[in-house]
TrEMBL record:
Protein name: site-specific DNA-methyltransferase (adenine-specific)
A Pfam family per the record: N6_Mtase
Keyword Methyltransferase on entry: yes
PANTHER family assigned: SLR6095 PROTEIN, TYPE I RESTRICTION ENZYME ECOKI METHYLASE SUBUNIT
EC number: 2.1.1.72
GO MF, any single term: site-specific DNA-methyltransferase (adenine-specific) activity
Catalysed reactions, as listed in the record: a 2'-deoxyadenosine in DNA + S-adenosyl-L-methionine = an N(6)-methyl-2'-deoxyadenosine in DNA + S-adenosyl-L-homocysteine + H(+)
Enzyme class of the recorded protein, top EC level: transferase
The keyword Methyltransferase is annotated on this UniProt entry: yes
Domain spans labelled N6 adenine-specific DNA methyltransferase N-terminal: 7-128
Source species, domain of life: Bacteria
Gene Ontology BP annotations: DNA restriction-modification system; methylation
Residue span, DNA methylase adenine-specific domain: 139-449
Length: 482
């Protein structure tokens, strides 16, 4: 049975259970069970390859002890074990046992067992046992399925809160070009899309020896506020060969005062798609006295500017509203351009984030340390013959190949303007009141007739509608009189 078919059959089993309600609960249920299977497979491999390695999970709670036997406990006995023994003890694991123990505890801190049928749970467990996560091919196949599950999660939150299209994350990583040893931070990591893309990029380009891999993993940092995406992110890290994903913290990055982030916490790279359109809880704005707002995207941008080292670089997804917004947004954009070189803005069409949101988004690329002189804009267009991106026809990395080719090498030399490209000076942006929503000056404007002609055409159309209405009225009156 293929991994795709297997995952579908597991989801079909869950749909029969009266306790699991909706996609979000199904994903959460699937995730904690796969998490325990994945970490147990990884533990068994580490026990063979590392001297004196001990699993962070007590022996009687390990997957192999209670779930691996297809004829093992089932029914009420299984439910009682999961609800009364497994969950309480994993939620209270002593974190002094090491970083992997802390990862397990953090994952189960807000996890729940939604299933009410022990028989259906045993069926589900037996299906999960068909996947060997120490088999590289199966792990890779499941990684693809896992990303598809995330993509299919219809109630993923506002503006793609959990899911950024892989093509967008891959393009941003490609242009930032992270290297092992550079501290890379995603302050709103969701399910870990930027982290996995960054690891894939570094493994393809730079990781040649085990010490390179260790250096890369030791340089990753991430925070996620919500329980479900945090659990998904940690599982995603395990699937991608990370032994200790304790760098993925379950926390709210914005809960700390901005000034409390010290120099030794600065990072080389920020790659993120902060939630936008949302508001933070009361009191959070007090952590940002210069930019007092509860709008999440604005607060994250202020934090990112603070966190970058001199020479540090960032790629951030922001909505159109952040570009043209006034008030606090104006002050924030002025601060960005004074502290950083905002060198490139890639403008994306509204359909890129469908079905989660239909909103204009932008990729902002900037470097800390020198003020902005010029901003280059690239207008990405939907491929010819396609009206918009969709679930069935999403944006692909090759759709952005023309932008990557134009980008330029070191120092982004050799850039030229064209039909999709224009340059605006910092002085022009300042004169516009720091409105970064600059339209493409090369776009062919639609030709409109003289306003008097348009008004005459409108009057004629309205008269025609009125005449048809009178005809219908006459017909109905005549029919009723008969």
């Amino acid at each position: 049975m293929s991994v795709r078919t297997l995952v579908k059959s597991i989801q079909d089993i869950m749909r029969k259970d009266t306790g699991v309600d909706g996609d979000a609960q199904r994903i959460s249920q699937l995730c904690w069970m796969f998490f325990l299977k994945i970490i147990d497979d990884q533990d068994q491999e580490l026990e063979l390859t590392k001297d004196a390695y001990t699993s962070p999970i007590p022996a009687d709670l390990q997957w192999r002890a209670w779930a691996a036997d297809p004829e093992g406990i089932t029914g009420e006995a299984l439910l009682d074990f999961v609800n009364l023994t497994l969950f309480p003890r994993l939620k209270s694991l002593p974190t002094a046992a090491g970083p992997r123990a802390k990862v397990v505890r953090d994952v189960f801190e807000d996890a729940y067992n939604y299933m009410k049928s022990g028989q259906l749970m045993r069926q589900m467990i037996n299906k999960i046992n068909e996947v060997d996560f120490n088999n590289l091919t199966e792990r890779q196949h499941f990684g693809d399925i896992y990303e598809q599950i995330l993509n299919d999660l219809q109630n993923a939150g506002n503006a793609g809160e959990y899911y950024t299209p892989r093509a967008v994350t891959a393009f941003m990583v490609q242009q930032i070009d992270p290297k092992p040893g550079e501290i890379l931070f995603d302050p709103a990591c969701g399910t870990g899309g930027f982290l996995t893309c960054a690891m894939r990029h570094m493994r393809d380009a730079y990781v040649k020896r085990p010490e390179h891999e260790a250096l890369m993993q030791a340089s990753l940092r991430a925070v996620e506020k919500k329980p479900l995406p945090h659990m998904l992110c940690v599982t995603n890290m395990l699937l991608n060969g990370v032994e200790e994903p304790n760098f993925v913290r379950h926390d709210n990055t914005l809960a700390r005062p901005l000034v409390s982030w010290t120099k030794d916490e600065r990072v080389d790279i920020v790659l993120t798609n902060p939630p936008f359109g949302g508001k933070e809880e009361d009191g959070i704005e007090g952590n940002f006295p210069t930019f007092r707002t509860r709008e999440t995207a604005d607060l994250f941008l202020a934090l990112i500017i603070r966190l970058l080292k001199p020479g540090g670089r960032a790629a951030v997804v922001l909505p159109d509203g952040s570009l043209f917004g006034e008030g606090i947004k104006t002050r924030l954009k002025e601060h960005l351009m004074e502290e950083c070189n905002l060198h490139t803005i890639v403008r994306l069409p509204n359909s890129v984030f469908k079905p989660y949101a239909s909103i204009g988004t932008n990729l902002l690329f900037f470097e800390k340390g020198t003020p902005t002189q010029d901003i280059w804009y690239w207008e990405h267009r939907v491929p010819e013959g396609q009206k918009a991106y969709s679930m069935t026809k999403p944006i692909r990395l090759d759709h952005l190949a023309d932008c990557a080719a134009w980008w330029g090498g070191a120092g982004r030399q050799g850039r030229v303007e064209g039909p999709q490209v224009w340059k605006v000076s910092a002085a022009e942006i300042k004169a516009r009141g720091y409105n970064l929503d600059v339209k493409n000056p090369h776009a062919i404007q639609e030709e409109h007739d003289d306003p008097e002609i348009l008004l005459a055409e409108l009057d004629a159309a309205e008269a025609e509608v009125a005449a048809i209405r009178e005809q219908l009225k006459a017909i109905l009156t005549e029919a009723l009189a008969e």
